[in-house]
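Section 3.1: Structural characterization of target chains.
Under the original work plan, the team committed to producing a structural model for every single-chain target entering the pipeline before any wet-lab resources were allocated. The record below documents one such target. The sequence was received from the expression subgroup and is listed exactly as submitted; it comprises 214 residues.
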Amino acid sequence: VLENQDLQDSIKPQKVEFHSLNFNTTLHWQPGWAREARDALYFVQYKVYGQSTWQNKDECWGISSRICDLTHETSDIQEPYYSRVRAAWAGVYSNWSLSCRFTPWRETVIGPPMVTVAHSNKSITVKLQAPRSPYKRKRGSTIPMTNYYDLLYQVFIINNLLDEQHRVLVYEGKEKVVEIQDLRPGVSYCIVAKMYMPMLDHSSAYSSRQCTVL
């Protein structure tokens, strides 16, 4: 019996964590410390905080992967959720490993906007597109993250002649098209942007650089 108990403990999943970007939410975990744990199969359940019964996640039932997509199951973004994972190897099941509480609206990471630039001889026009959630409108288009939060675009310019690391904030607001004027012809400029959430004082990562020479 003790050997079984040891095996149960040694294949038990570790570090069960939610990861979420723009409400695309996955559960991740690490294998137990036993060598056998590498070949274990995993079983995932989830529930809303306060519910008494756990739901099986059918697509993550008896899987060898250590990641499970729970985007659909966590779509009520104001609710707090829990998930748990157990492992099985050679007919022995571990105890469940519980995640921390996860509330999508509070904890999802907001990604950077998409940025495109066009230029004339003295100005750059920046077009901004907010990141999109996985959730769809009735007509089928995905809902932008700006529907869920009060988000501002922050646009920064980098004058490569001066310093490639120095970003200057040139715009903050909700406009999707921003014109940056009075720039010097013949100079290489790069644009990066972020999403900024004043209420929680959170910023996204920077977008990828879009560079142009006037």
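The first strand starts at residue 14 and ends at 21.
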